[in-house]
Backbone:
């Protein structure tokens, strides 16, 4: 069996974050940067899987189970750019 194509930050992960997400989180991390997202991946995953982020009050829908699983898989694969 051929190895599955690894998930890529630019193709699969970066589009999960909206402009609002990036702008509001800029003080603590850069959600548009692979290195920053990979460094904070555990905290980011916890925040989206729990529904704490993005905050319900900002009007964005919470991440689906698929989005959370894609993010976790990208992290576990080593965070390809
Ligand atoms: C390490 C994980 C994170 C921490 C500790 C964190 C913390 C915070 C805090 C303290 C605020 C301001 C207070 C609030 O509105 O609740 C905030 C706002 C916000 N965060 Fe996060 N955040 C994290 C990850 C994320 C992620 C992954 C997203 C998007 C998927 C996100 C999207 C937002 C948005 C859109 C706001 C603005 C809400 C508004 O002003 O209406 N955050 N975050």
Residues:
């Amino acid at each position: 069996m051929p190895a599955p194509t690894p998930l890529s930050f630019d193709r699969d992960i970066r589009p999960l974050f909206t402009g609002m997400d990036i702008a509001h989180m800029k003080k603590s991390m850069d959600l548009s940067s692979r290195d920053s997202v990979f460094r904070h991946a555990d905290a980011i995953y916890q925040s989206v899987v729990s529904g704490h982020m993005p905050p319900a009050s900002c009007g964005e829908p919470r991440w689906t189970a698929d989005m959370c699983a894609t993010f976790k898989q990208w992290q576990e694969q080593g965070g390809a750019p």
